[in-house]
From TrEMBL:
Gene: PRUNE1
A UniProt-annotated Pfam family: DHHA2
PANTHER family: BNIP - RELATED, EXOPOLYPHOSPHATASE PRUNE1
Span list, region Disordered: 382-402
Residue ranges of domain DHHA2 in the record: 220-364
Name assigned to this protein: DHHA2 domain-containing protein
Family: Belongs to the PPase class C family. Prune subfamily.
Originating organism: Oncorhynchus tshawytscha (Chinook salmon)
Keywords of this entry: Hydrolase, Manganese, Metal-binding
Amino acid sequence: MEGFLQRCSAAIKGSAEGSSGIHVILGNEACDLDSMVSSLAFAYFLSKTSGSSGKTVVPVLNIPRAEFPLRSDNVFLLKESGVPLEALVFRDEVDLAGLHRAKRLMLTLVDHNVLPSADIDLEDAVVEVIDHHHLERTPSMSCSVTVETVGSCATLVTERIHHKAPEVLDRQVAQLLYGAIVLDCVNMAPEAGKVTPKDSQLSCLLESRFPDLPPRGALFQSLQSAKFDISGLSTEQILLKDMKAVSGGDLRLAVCTVYMTLDVFLQRRSLQQELCEFCHKHRFGAVVAMTISFNERSEPHRQLAVYSSSTLYREEVSQALEKSCNPSLSFSPMSSPFNNIKSYLQGNALASRKKVLPILKNFLKEWDKKQVHCGEAEDFEELDDHVDPTGSPSFDDDARPRCFSASRHHRRRLLGTEDSGMEEDFQVPATPMNSLVEGCPLDAGLPRISAEAILEKFSCMGGEAGENKDGNWPGEQ
């Protein structure tokens, strides 16, 4: 595989001047072990068969190269399998949009079946999907879709290779696939609720063909230990380590798997300030942190926290999760040391992020339908700060983030209660791209400003918003 990856890297470096086509095998924006291995193995398979349609096949890891060290289990398995990290191709190293405009791009999606909104212009280039998540994709004659809710996407890739070109499956590729299946299926333990008969069948196939693969239990423990190693990471790095983004209208959510108990996470120093900075930097309205740990029987223990400095965002997201019936998360409220973090014990420990994401996506679809864009400056008022400013950074007057809320009239319209006479005491950030929301420590200690200054600020912000309207976080989905 080393020679294959080096040719891929060379092809990408020369793609700006070349005219040949590129067939990119793209994993999801979390770039977890399953996504990475599925991309590498399926690209290698296509390069050895006629499935590449004469184009150069390149596996692309869907994160910036600088974030890859955070995927410690990925790094571990690649090193153990003898795959050189420097030969990998990352999302910030290839211009997919440029290749598509030049009509030189084909896309195969692995471990996800729909493109995020930031990549929606690439949709015409998608020719195949292999995934194990809930099918969201609209059927198309131009795109072959293989979707089966097994424990690991690597299981489906292994099946394809075994059926179409078993000679392609060498020991190095087998070890990558085996590691991804074993980790995603939690050491094939039924108690974890992840493994399916097909996962077991294909993992046994790999074991029988390559009896010198690392022992399953030892490999799982090594990968699990690497995955849960968050020593020395900042809160931002912990959230980015395994994050997926979803959006609807003006609301963008970061859904992060956090590898520690919620109690430990909430005790992190300056957590409230760091969460606010994370949302501001990456333009999220809220963070859903799903913590996970395992007992000695490989049974998962899950807790969940919803953070937002906007009361409306926090309450609406929390209620969507609390009220979910398919699946029910069986929430029990937990005490939280912060007013802007809602905490829960998740009784349904088998509901992983793969099952929670559809709940949030359905909520965001409804949110988008209700959303009202407020354009008049007089419909907004500056918010008071309610967070302890201790330790918050200082800002120059011109650079200082401002906080605003929608007027009562527009809040009622957002919530569909205008005609009922109900008045909701929620605060909505009018311009999340250019200002922070209420209760953020970044905005601590701001002086009150006049109505004329507010109008002037919104006039300026209106221009900025127009210039930046196409900005998107690369991992948005």
